[in-house]
Design a protein that fits this description.
heterodimer; A: 157 residues; alpha+beta; Ubiquitin Conjugating Enzyme; four-stranded antiparallel β-sheet; B: 584 residues; mainly alpha; 18 helices; extended; peroxisome biogenesis (chain A); EC 2.3.2.23 (chain A); UBQ-conjugating_enzyme/RWD (chain A); nucleotide-binding (chain A); ubiquitin conjugating enzyme activity (chain A)
Chain lengths: 157, 584
C-alpha cells in the first residue's frame, strides 16, 4: 500500500515536471484518489486516429508497480485491439508481459504505439480485425476515421 | 536344534524360489539398488517381488536422488563450459535438462544460446559508481549496499527486487525464466539472486519449481502419479512394456500415466476412461429412456402408468406418450384413452420407425456398455478390497499365523505372494472388460475365444482367492495340524503359480490381439469352439511362455491337478487334460 502510493507520488511529480516534454500525452491524477488517473492522448499522425484526442481511464491496484494498472478507453475508438463497447485494451504489457519498470507515462506511449500498429490477429473488436485481415485497409481506415470524427474531435459549431 | 531349523529354512526358501523363478534371470539382480531403503520390511519385500519379476527398464528416483542428479548435471555443464553454476542451471533448464543438447547448441552458436538464455556478456558493463543510485521500480535513491543488479547492471533496491522476484515466484513456474525488470534488457535472474534476495519461503518454492522442472521438462522422467508420492520414474525410452511400479507400490503406465493397464493399450484406456466420464452416456440414457415434452422439450421418463402424460408445472402440458399429440384430441374416436390409433397407423406407415429405431439402438448399446462397465468397476473394487486384505495380512494375520504355526514370517511369504497375485489378477481382469467392450462384434471367433479365456481366468482367480481367504482362516483361527498347514502351503503356492502363468499368457495373448485365433477362425460352431479355444490357448501358452517354471510345477491338491500346458484344473482321477488332452 505504502510502496504503491509513494511510487505513484513520484510519478505524479515527474508528470508535473515533464508536462511539456511529451505534448501527445496529458496525464492527470484524480483530485481525491491517487489510484485513479485519466489521460488524454493524441491520435498518432498518419493513422486514421490523427487529429483525435482520446481519453483513457487508469485504475491502479494496490500492488502497483508489481501488478499492472487497468486501463481502458473512455472515448469510443474503432481499433482491432480495443473492445468497441467497454474500451478494454488487449495489450501484452498490461497483462502477462508487465514489468514494474513501466510507468503510467510509458503505458500511454505503448498505447499510442498500439494505435499506430494494430494487431489484427488477437482482436477484441472482430469487425475491425476482420477488415484488416481480409486486406481491406481502406475500409478499416474509413471506419476508424469516421469514429475518430464522431467521438474524438471537438464538435464544430 | 536352532541351526538345524535354520538349515531347513534356507533350503526351503531356496527351492521355493527356484520353483518360482527358474528361467527368470531378472530375479536377483536388483534387490540392493543404491538408495533403496525399506520403510517397512515386510511390505517392501513383497513389492520387490513384483518389481523384480519384470525386466527393469526404469529407475525410481527419490527426491534426494533427483536433487543429486540435478546437481551433478549442473556441475558437469559448469565445468565443461567454464560458466557459473547459476548460468549452467539456466542453460540446462532452457534445454530441458538435456546435457548433450546443451553442449551441442553451445558449441554450435554460443552467442545465440547466451542471448536466448539471457546470459549477458558482462565485459562492457561498468560497475556502478559510488554514491546514490535510483531504483528503477520505486524511483527512490539508495546507497550502493542496498541496491542489487543482475548481470546487466540495472539497479533496483533490494526491497523492490524481493517484491519483484516474490511476485514472479507466486505466479508459478515462470519464475525460472525471470528477467531483469527493464523490458528491453533480458538479462536472466537466476537462482543466486533468488537466494540472495528473497524470503526463506520463496526460496523453498523456487527450489521446488526447479526440482519439478528437472522432472517435468525432461523427456525421460515423470512423477509417480500416486497421491502423496514424491518419487519420479526415469524410463528407458523404446524399451518394451511401459508398466512401472513405484516404491510406493503404485503401478502405472509410464506412457499415459494412467494406472497400469496391460493387456489393453493406452489408446483404448483413454477411450474407455473418457467414455466412463462422458456425458455422452447420460445422453444415450436420456435418448433411450425418455421423450421430450412436445411443448417445453424437457426430457420425460415414463416409468409407469397410462399413456396420458402431464408435464410438470409450470408447463403442465397434457399429451399422449405414443403419438406425442395433444391429449384433448384423444377420445373414443382415436381408439380410447388407453391406446392410440394414430400411433398404430403411423407406425404401420413407418412414420415412427426412425426415431424408434434410434431409441432402440441407443438402449442396446447402453446395455452393452453397462454390462462391461459394471464388471470393470466390480473388479476395480475387488482389487481395492484385496489390497486392503493384503495390508491386513501383513500387519496382523501374518504375525498371528507365525505364532500359531511356529514358523518365521519369512517362511510365510507365500501367503503375501498369493495376495499380490490376486491384486494383480484383479487389475488384469478389470482391463479385460475394457478390452472386451472394444472387441469388434463381428469377430465372432475372437469374441468367443476371448470370453472363454476371460471366464477361465475368472474361475482360476476365484479358486486362488477362495484358498487364500477361506482356507487360510482355518489355519489362523482353527486347530489345523502342522501337516495340514504344509499341504495348504503346497496348494496355495501351486495355485499362485498356476494363476500367474495363466494370467501372463492371457495378457500376452490379448496384447497380440488374439492373433492365434484367425487360423481357427472358421470353427465358430458353439459345439466345437470350446475345444478349439483350448488347443489354441495351449498353443499360445506353449509358444511364448514355457519360461516361468512352466514344466517344473505341477499342482496336485485335494480337488485335482492343473494341466502343465493349459493350466486347466482337472479332476483328480483324470489321466489326461480334459481341455487340451495332454496326458498328465
Amino acid at each position: 500500500m505504502q510502496a504503491s502510493r509513494a511510487r505513484l507520488f513520484k510519478e505524479y511529480k515527474e508528470v508535473q515536471r515533464e508536462k511539456v516534454a511529451d505534448p501527445d500525452i496529458q496525464l492527470v491524477c484524480d483530485d481525491s484518489n491517487i489510484f485513479k488517473w485519466t489521460a488524454l492522448i493524441k491520435g498518432p499522425s498518419e493513422t486514421p486516429y490523427e487529429g483525435g484526442v482520446f481519453q483513457l481511464a487508469f485504475s491502479v491496484p494496490e500492488q502497483y508497480p508489481l501488478q499492472p494498472p487497468q486501463v481502458r478507453f473512455l472515448t469510443k475508438i474503432f481499433h482491432p485491439n480495443v473492445h468497441f463497447k467497454t474500451g478494454e485494451i488487449c495489450l501484452d504489457i498490461l497483462k502477462n508481459a508487465w514489468s514494474p519498470a513501466w510507468t503510467l507515462q510509458s503505458v500511454c506511449r505503448a498505447i499510442i504505439a498500439l494505435m499506430a500498429h494494430p494487431e489484427p490477429d488477437s482482436p477484441l473488436n472482430c469487425d475491425s480485425g476482420n477488415l484488416l485481415r481480409s486486406g481491406d485497409v481502406r475500409g478499416f481506415q474509413s471506419m476508424a476515421k469516421m469514429y475518430t470524427r464522431l467521438a474524438a474531435m471537438p464538435k464544430k459549431g | 536344534m536352532d541351526s538345524e531349523d535354520d538349515m531347513h529354512d534356507a533350503n526351503d526358501v531356496d527351492s521355493y524360489e527356484e520353483d518360482y523363478y527358474s528361467g527368470d534371470a531378472m530375479y536377483s539382480d536388483d534387490d540392493d539398488d543404491a538408495g533403496y531403503e525399506f520403510l517397512d520390511n515386510a511390505s517392501d519385500d513383497s513389492d520387490d517381488v513384483s518389481v523384480s519379476r519384470q525386466q527393469k527398464n526404469y529407475t525410481i528416483l527419490k527426491e534426494d536422488d533427483i536433487r543429486q542428479r540435478q546437481e551433478d548435471d549442473i556441475t558437469r555443464i559448469s565445468s565443461v563450459l567454464s560458466i557459473s553454476r547459476d548460468s549452467a542451471c539456466m542453460l540446462l533448464r532452457r534445454f530441458n535438462w538435456n546435457v548433450s543438447n546443451v553442449h551441442e547448441a553451445w558449441f554450435a552458436n554460443e552467442d545465440a544460446v547466451r542471448k536466448a538464455v539471457g546470459m549477458l556478456d558482462t565485459t562492457n558493463i561498468k560497475p556502478p559508481k559510488a554514491g546514490e543510485l535510483p531504483c528503477g521500480i520505486c524511483f527512490e535513491s539508495y546507497t550502493l549496499d542496498s541496491v542489487s543488479t543482475a548481470a546487466c547492471g540495472h539497479p533496483f533496491c533490494n526491497t523492490c527486487w524481493a517484491a519483484y522476484i516474490s511476485t514472479s515466484i507466486n505466479d508459478g513456474p515462470g519464475c525460472l525464466t525471470l528477467r531483469c525488470p527493464i523490458p528491453s534488457c533480458g538479462a536472466a535472474v537466476g537462482v543466486d539472486m533468488v537466494n540472495m534476495l528473497t524470503s526463506d519461503e520463496d526460496k523453498k518454492k523456487y527450489r521446488r519449481y526447479l526440482l519439478r522442472s528437472y522432472i517435468e521438462d525432461n523427456r525421460k522422467t515423470k512423477w509417480c502419479p500416486a497421491p502423496g508420492c514424491d518419487c519420479a520414474i526415469e524410463f528407458d525410452l523404446g524399451s518394451g512394456s511401459y508398466d512401472v511400479t513405484c516404491y510406493c507400490s503404485y503401478s502405472f503406465c509410464w506412457n499415459c500415466t494412467e494406472e497400469a493397464h496391460r493387456p489393453v493399450d493406452c489408446e483404448t484406456v483413454s477411450k474407455w476412461i473418457m467414455k466412463n466420464s462422458a456425458e455422452s452416456e447420460n445422453m444415450n440414457w436420456i435418448l433411450a429412456n425418455s421423450k421430450p415434452c412436445p411443448k417445453c422439450k424437457r426430457p420425460i421418463e415414463k416409468n409407469q402408468g397410462c399413456m396420458h402424460m402431464t408435464c410438470n408445472p409450470p408447463c403442465k402440458y397434457e399429451f399422449c406418450w405414443l403419438c406425442l399429440g395433444q391429449w384433448s384430441d384423444h377420445g373414443e374416436r382415436t381408439g380410447g384413452f388407453y391406446a392410440c390409433n394414430r400411433y398404430e397407423s403411423a407406425k404401420q406407415e413407418g412414420a415412427y420407425d426412425e426415431s424408434e429405431r434410434r431409441r432402440e439402438m441407443a438402449k442396446n448399446s447402453l446395455e452393452r456398455y453397462t454390462h462391461y462397465y459394471e464388471r470393470w468397476a466390480t473388479n476395480q473394487s475387488s482389487r481395492q478390497k484385496a489390497l486392503a486384505d493384503l495390508l491386513q495380512m501383513q500387519t496382523v494375520h501374518l504375525a498371528k499365523l507365525s505364532e500359531r504355526q511356529c514358523q518365521p514370517e519369512t517362511q510365510l511369504k507365500f501367503i503375501l505372494e498369493a495376495w499380490l497375485q490376486i491384486v494383480e489378477c484383479r487389475r488384469v481382469l478389470k482391463w479385460t472388460y475394457a478390452y472386451g467392450y472394444y472387441l469388434p462384434e463381428q469377430e465372432v471367433a475372437k469374441r468367443q475365444f476371448f470370453e472363454y479365456l476371460q471366464g477361465e481366468a475368472e474361475a482360476g482367480l476365484e479358486r486362488l482367492h477362495q484358498c487364500a481367504e477361506k482356507e487360510l482362516h482355518t489355519h489362523i483361527d482353527g486347530n489345523a495340524s502342522q501337516e495340514e498347514f504344509n499341504n495348504f502351503r503346497t496348494k496355495l503356492a501351486g495355485l499362485t503359480t498356476v494363476t500367474r502363468n495363466y494370467f501372463e499368457n492371457l495378457v500376452r495373448a490379448l496384447e497380440n490381439g488374439l492373433s492365434d485365433v484367425d487360423s481357427h477362425g472358421a470353427s465358430s460352431k458353439t459345439s466345437t469352439s470350446k475345444h478349439a479355444a483350448g488347443t489354441s490357448k495351449s498353443k499360445s501358452g506353449k509358444g511364448k511362455g514355457p519360461t516361468k517354471g512352466g514344466g517344473s510345477t505341477r499342482t496336485d491338491d485335494l480337488t485335482g491337478w492343473s494341466c502343465d500346458q493349459c493350466t486347466y484344473m482337472n479332476p483328480k482321477n483324470a489321466t489326461s487334460c480334459q481341455i487340451c488332452h495332454t496326458s498328465r
